[in-house]
Amino acid sequence: MKDKIALALNADELIKSALKEDISSEDVTTNSVIKEYKKGTVQLICKQDGVICGLGVFKRVFEILDANTLVEFTVDDGDKVTRGQLLGTVTGDIRVLLSGERTALNYLQRMSGIATYTSQVVSLLGNSKTRLLDTRKTTPNMRIFEKYAVKVGGGLNHRYNLSDGVLLKDNHIGAAGGVKQAIEAAKAYAPFVRKIEVEVENLEMCKEAVEAGADIIMLDNMSVEDMKKAVKMINGRALTECSGNVTRENIAKIVDTGVDFVSSGALTHSAPILDISLKNLHPVD
């Protein structure tokens, strides 16, 4: 529920910006063939198997253009959908249906693609204790939508933005002069309610991070064998996270390492869209 509330509170301005991008002054094509109000309806059709996500955003696009637009769905966010399935209908001013179509579908296809890809990756973790996280590798001005889609697909959200948590990466460590110095500086500055996560690239850095009292240790681009050694070294003194080019194709290799979390930028930067269309537009009385 809190994801939907956050989305509702933040979505409108972003959706309006997307609409302004697509309609800078008018929809010339639509206005040239439809001169006045005419009521119509169009079907929302799924063209691929997947997990649907973003229905509320899809609906909101049309409501912003015309509050009288009626959008009705036969599915809910998180439902598995199949090729050829009718997902819903949109009824209202035909000019609104035509002008809002691309923006509404862009959101729905992108979010459903992420939810679908995330669901596939989560399934590869099986019954292991390892949980799947997203990253900040999101499309500008799409983060709230894309991270919501990860949750719908069964994944978890890592920090939302730079104000949301301490994550000491290689360049922070380099700037601070080392792992220990970076952790000490973060502990001295960050509010005590913030956990401190540090990225390590080898077992020596891992040992230093444990001894310095990191709350979470990210094992970045380490071999499977070194990750197993690192988890054993940490021995529950910190949460563990694996990262670095994690995809649907290679995540199965990580399951046996015993890490608590695995983060994957691919969930948001490489997920293909789910093909969905608005079809069979026609006037109604």
Describe, in plain words, how this protein is organized in 3D.
The protein has ten helices and twelve strands. The radius of gyration is 23 Å and the shape is elongated. Helix 8 links the parallel strand 8 (196-200) and strand 9. By secondary structure, it is α/β, with parallel strands linked by helices. The strands form three sheets. A six-stranded parallel sheet has the order 6-11-10-9-8-7. A four-stranded antiparallel sheet has the order 3-5-1-12, with helices on one face. A two-stranded antiparallel sheet has the order 2-4.
Low-pLDDT ranges: none
Placed side by side, the strands forming the largest sheet appear as 6-11-10-9-8-7
Report the count of strand segments.
Answer: 12
Share of residues in helices: 40-55%
Short précis:
This protein is an alpha/beta fold. It has helices at residues 2-22, 28-33, 55-65, 94-124, 143-152, 170-176, 179-189, 203-212, 224-234, 266-269; strands at residues 39-46, 50-51, 70-73, 80-81, 86-93, 131-133, 166-168, 196-200, 216-220, 239-243, 261-263, 276-283.
SSE layout and pairings?
Elements: H1 2-22, H2 28-33, E1 39-46, E2 50-51, H3 55-65, E3 70-73, E4 80-81, E5 86-93, H4 94-124, E6 131-133, H5 143-152, E7 166-168, H6 170-176, H7 179-189, E8 196-200, H8 203-212, E9 216-220, H9 224-234, E10 239-243, E11 261-263, H10 266-269, E12 276-283
Q: What attributes characterize this protein structure?
A:
6-stranded parallel sheet; 4-stranded antiparallel sheet; 10 helices; single chain; alpha/beta; 285 residues
